[in-house]
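Lecture 7 notes: from sequence to structure.
We start with the chain below.
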Amino acid sequence: MSSIIEINKEEDIPTGLRNTAADKLLVYHNFKKPHDRYAQPELLLVTCMDFRVNPVLPERFAYVIRTAGASLRSADFPVSYAIGVGGIECIVVMGHTDCGMVQVHERKEVFKEGLARRVNWPEQKSEGHFHACVPLHEIGNVVEFTLQQVERLKSLYPGILIVPMLYDVDTNKISLLIE
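Predicted structure tokens for the same chain:
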């Protein structure tokens, strides 16, 4: 059973996250804390490519990976690079409400029509592309998918703090997710 923990005041942030890059992200975004200056990133933020997801981040504070549905199914190398070369010790995986990768199969006709109209793809090509890519990108329930990704990353990168979060596109607030 998973839960969403709203962060409405700094005291809502669990003590285990205090003084971490995840804590800083929450206070920069949710409470508009003035930005510190950073010479190098402290955080890897994995989030969706959706234009409505706009976390408030100081300059040079975070590496950011944006993928459809915030999915890392085929992006382990950039994560490893951020840790190995970038020195990152904290990763936030941030799903969001109203994600287009939830039930993406329901958008097949719109997908095909858009590719036909914009790039002149024949129906067979766009349908084949859709069916080839959907298994990699469709996420189902955003909260459960985000938590599953965090568990997978924790098994790959023990010792790295990996925190699941949820961005609400209606309120622009970030919450924590817990199992």
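Points to note: Residues 97 and 171 are 10 Å apart (CA to CA). The mean pLDDT is 95.
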